[in-house]
Amino acid sequence: MKKPLNSSSQSSPKYKILHIGAEVTPFSNVGGLSSVIAYLSKSLLKKGHDVRIFMPRFSFIDEKQFPMEMVFEGLAVPTGYAEGDGKPTELICNIRKHVTEDGIIVYFLENMEYYEKRSNVYNYSDDHVRWALLSYGALQFISEKLDWKPDIIHSHDWHTALVPNIVATKYRTSPFFEDIATVLTIHNIHFQGKSVDPSSELNFDDGKSQIPKFFSGRLKTLNFLRRGIIYSDLVNTVSNGYARQILTREYGSGLDKLLTELRSKLFGVINGIDYEKFDPLTDPLLPANFDINSIDARSENKLSLQKEFGLKEKAEVPLIGYVGRLDQQKGVDLLLEVLEKFLKDFNAQFVLIGSGDNGYEKAAQRLAKKFPQIVGVHTFPNFTLPKLVFGGADMMVMPSRFEPCGIVQMEAMRYGAVPIVRATGGLDDTVTDFDPATLNGTGFKFKDFDGWSLYGQLVRATETYRNKETWRKIQENAIRQNFSWTEVASKYEDLYKTAIHYKQEGFFHGDLFEL
Ligand code: GLC
User: Whole-model pTM?
Assistant: First the structure.
């Protein structure tokens, strides 16, 4: 992968950065991108940048917990229709703001119909309208109603990928946007705004036509992500490994050719984890706190984990954990199938926390029924239990089909749970395979997405576990890794510097994408 410009070599400039995203922790927590936006913002702020966030005001965001102040009432966002078309010519929104405990200003776009009336963040048939409104609303608000101008507008995933498109077209001649660089982070290339079917040429969006009106059927067929890639000044994804993978047909979900063409503006930056929120020494959710010098204390956590899940309370039985969405991407099908065999052959326990696909939830519950006191399953969202798993389980398994970054493996390592992962994307970048000869390595990896490969690593891990000294060494190696956001934020500083440079030089706009 290409290296961005190095901002730390000279006196590093301080930027004004606006993140626009569908969801942000702690206001909503569906996907990994919500924590990325929150923690990246926090670390950039600590480095002296002026960081603000723009997101929808969902009804489930509790105003008692997050007090909000009205900043603008009656923002009329044009929908593209004229009077007499029988469609609303504009959608009326309000903007509220909340300042986080770290001092980040978060703007909330308020609209009854599209955000407040919905109890979920995603998966409505008019999502394309909801995210188009967010993108247009954000740009209109900052350019017309706010006395603050960002140097960088940073969008995330397909939901806000229209932002660079709107900046480069609607606002093409606007002096306000003249020197603002746009950055797009791809957290998951599989979701593009329309259902991904690379084989279908029908309704193919080449990304260069005008953005359709809000309620036209064409908006639905738009490939938001493709447009974001085309029009942004710089694109990055959440690991180097995934940045390389999405250039291939196998992982590119139909965008590999475009990305290969534009690869000089494509970068990979691995995500981090928040070292204050994720610290086994101070975590109030752990019965026993510990650090690298007191790893033994984990056994108390393991016993309460076993108790919590109704497993046999035995410190010496290896306990494997899974925490995450239950979907195809994560390889849950492979995991459940292999565990059925593995748990018959080996003395081990398994706990799972996750929700998602109904079929996988049922399959996990079936496994728990089949292996009482050996398998424990929680198939509902839970924000506290995962910490007990990280701090008490011996291993965490992640057999993903693909994994742009993956956060759980980093959280697990920080808490001394040894990862067993498929060597793909960010999992491959963050976990090094244990080498018994040198005692180096932080976990166990397998390459091919098949049952025997996973089975093999489950056996390797649980057999190695029997050697206490060796196991302790792997845990120490894992805990010593540095995945803090502070490190990652400096890589984003370099990206921003590069994006501004590209924007100034006009590298990716102009004739090539002239409309
Ligand atoms: C998506 C990816 C995951 C990544 C996260 C945050 O959820 O699937 O791998 O860690 O985004 O970037």
Answer: 0.93
